[in-house]
Amino acid sequence: MTTPLTHLRHGCSPTRTAVLLHIGRQSLYQRLERTESLLGLEIDDPDLLGELLTATCAHRVVRGTGQTQVRGLRTVA
């Protein structure tokens, strides 16, 4: 879920997303095509950007990634 989240959080910029993920743009396009085929929708659809970003963030929280311990409290980074 890292690729869609990174892509959405950085304005759907293929160049910026590829740099942040340390992959080539062609690899990014392949990952995004695979994600779109699994979801059955276009990731860059402006009408869905907010919903997709919320869903990917929620998935991250539910899966427990990005969590840290702060004074005994569990927080999401």
Descriptive account of the structure:
The protein is mainly α. Helices cover 60% and strands 10% of the residues. The protein contains 4 helices and 2 strands, in the order H-H-H-H-E-E. The protein has a two-stranded antiparallel sheet. The two termini are 16 Å apart.
Brief overview, please?
With 77 residues, this protein is mainly α. 60% of the residues lie in helices and 10% in strands.
List keywords for this structure.
mainly alpha; 77 residues; two-stranded antiparallel sheet
Strand content: 5-15%
N-C termini distance: 16 Å
* Helix/strand structural class: mainly alpha
Strand order of the largest sheet: 1-2
Strand and helix map with partners:
Layout lengths: L1 H8 L4 H8 L3 H15 L9 H15 L3 E4 L2 E4 L1
Antiparallel strand pairs: 1-2
Helix pairs in contact: 1-4, 2-3
